[in-house]
Amino acid sequence: MNSTSNDYLRLTRSVDPAWVEDFVLELRLLDVPGTHIGDALALVESHVAESGESAQDAFGDAREYAKESARGQVPDALDFSWILGSVFGLIGMLLTIFGVQAWCFDSGVFELSVGTLVLIVMVLVAVTFLHFRSTQVIRFVVRRTWVAIAIFTMWSVAMLGALLLFPAIVAQIPAAIVTVLGVASLALGSVLEWRSKSAGQLEDPIVGPGEKPQAGMTWFSRVTILLFPILTVVMLAFGMLLNAIA
Question: The pTM is what?
Answer without folding.
Answer: 0.68
